[in-house]
Amino acid sequence: MTSSERRPVPGGLVWFDEPAPPRATEQLSRERIVNAAVELADDQVTGEITMRALAARLGVRSPMALYRYVGSKDGLVDLMTDQVYGRITVPRGHGWRHALQGLGRTGWDAVQRHPWFARLAFSRPPMGPNALHLYDSALAELAPFGLDATTRMGFVKTVLGHVLGSGLALLEEQTMRARAGFHSDSDLEAAAAPYLERIAAAGKHPHFISWATDPQRLAPEPQSFEQVLEWLLDGLATLLPPEDRSPV
Amino acid sequence: MTSSERRPVPGGLVWFDEPAPPRATEQLSRERIVNAAVELADDQVTGEITMRALAARLGVRSPMALYRYVGSKDGLVDLMTDQVYGRITVPRGHGWRHALQGLGRTGWDAVQRHPWFARLAFSRPPMGPNALHLYDSALAELAPFGLDATTRMGFVKTVLGHVLGSGLALLEEQTMRARAGFHSDSDLEAAAAPYLERIAAAGKHPHFISWATDPQRLAPEPQSFEQVLEWLLDGLATLLPPEDRSPV
DNA sequence: ACCATGAGTGGACAACGTACACAGACTTCT
DNA sequence: AGAAGTCTGTGTACGTTGTCCACTCATGGT
Question: Which InterPro entries does the record associate with it (chains A, B) (predicted)?
């Protein structure tokens, strides 16, 4: 029984039968914290995390322990955001359209895996190393066409805007479903029914009702992420000199 | 000196020299609260409001006074959102493209006036009467073309997604500027300079640096809201039977 | 003259981010 | 081996947030 097993106790007494001090968890580190934060955000439907919950997940009793590694919650959020930026890649060397297509598709993958990323990316300036690398790669593929800097950045922002906008819509749909505990489409349908009936009874908005009561309304739309991305790329292509517009 | 001027005081004593009870503010009402909330959100750069701040703005001493009219903060937020939806209009009777163009442009107007609207519209399902009317009008203009319900709704969602996505980007840019108190472009430039120099010194990301240091980088982009809207409408048009695609 | 109603008050609570002082273990230098 | 310093996690505490609940007080109907 070493002295390390003795813990002071409010009354001034000492516990001798305490198990060995926890220390079960390995050392904290910025990397371990960010990874846990990402996993925690993935577990929450809303993607919102709490310093206290994160500390608990890391097996640490005090939220303040994290502040030795991250400075502030906003700082941590920046790290999480940049980590996801790191999962987005820009294929190099196959032309601007292929590059932006890859940016869009891998971005969409990342956003589907971590919907909260869309919210965070929209609410803080993207200045982490991974985001920087992403922008730089995309801009590099746009360099050869004699466009001015604003226009080049506009290409990237248009694609990323579509990615993040679609991500936010996805996030909102998921949180809406979870808000009342609906997991299947039929649950959702059942819960929405009374509202729809009242609207239908009012008689205004018949076109909306005809959509809301269409059993096919949850089928995939032709305006999929990929399709809209192609439309945007088509539009962007018109800003390039004709000989540089890649074929579809 | 009427009894109404006597106010109990912790010690059990009474103030006699209090002025007449305030009652300077007129009666609360749901409408007055929502209007004040919209104005308050417009005044804050982030668009975030507080029940306490809202109560103060309405000349009311306790935030709880508002709960007699709104149920919860989320409920109030829904009312604010729907109020802004009411400022978006769909021109009727001039074809689907004109209708969606109008939806996009008035939506963009509304979002520029109330950038916080984009955040709220993305974070709660749009089910207020004004939103309902908006969807119904837009869907009505899409009714004559034999599209299925999912596709019709996809048209509207594509346009609204662009509006709200652009709005969020705008909101983020404004909050970023305000976060450190920058009001002019040169302030922003001065504050960003050290970061950029460190990135430039590192030597990676030359294409990003070449954008960040371009004095023209704040000029309006060719990928403006309206231009992207046109590209999206062009894309949507390809889903229609050829004879129904309006000319630009 | 009474009393029910309804508007606004104010104190309290839980959860949040985070500041601060501290305890115990580990490292380093004698 | 012992002392001194450093590094890591703890505990307490504060201010802000949304919201609950018991309360006061002016008003209007009988």
Answer: Homeodomain-like_sf, HTH-type_TetR-like_transc_reg, HTH_TetR, Repressor_TetR_C, Tet_transcr_reg_TetR-rel_C_sf
> Could you tell me if residue A15 is inside a domain?
no
DSSP 8-state code for residue A242: G
B109 and B65 share one domain: no
Provide the percentage of residues in chain A whose pLDDT is more than 70: 88
Query: Residue closest to C16, CA→C1'?
Result: A50
* Tokens representing residue B153 in the block: 């709704």
* 3-class state of residue A38 by DSSP: helix
B59/B99 same-domain check: no
- Whether A199 is covered by a domain: the verdict is no
Identify the closest residue of chain A to B213 by CA–CA distance: A149
Asked if strand D comes closer than 7 Å to A70 Cβ, the answer is: no
Range of the domain at A53: 21-71
HEC per residue, A48-101: CCCHHHHHHHCCCCCHHHHHHHHCCHHHHHHHHHHHHHCCCCCCCCCCHHHHHH
Confirm whether B165 is domain-assigned.
yes
State pLDDT tens for residues B53-91: 999 999 999 999 999 999 999 999 999 999 999 999 999
Nearest-angstrom CA–CA distance, A151 and B160? 24
Question: What percentage of chain A carries pLDDT values higher than 90?
Answer: 73
| Chain B residues with CB-CB distance to A228 below 8 A | 158, 232, 235
Reported as half-sphere exposure (CB side, CA atoms, 13 A), residue A79 has a value of 18
Residue B76: inside a domain: no
Per residue in B182-198, pLDDT (tens digit) is 778 788 788 888 888 99
Contact indicator for A89, A102 with CB cutoff of 8 Å: yes
Distance CA B228, CA A161 (A): 11
Measured CA angle at B234 (ends B229, B238), to 5 deg: 145
Nearest CB partner across the interface for A199, out of B123, B132, B204: B132
Instruction: Tell me which H or E stretch contains A27.
Output: none
Residue with token string 């920087």: A132
**pLDDT average, residue stretch B202-225:** 94
CA gap A43, A47 in Å, rounded: 7
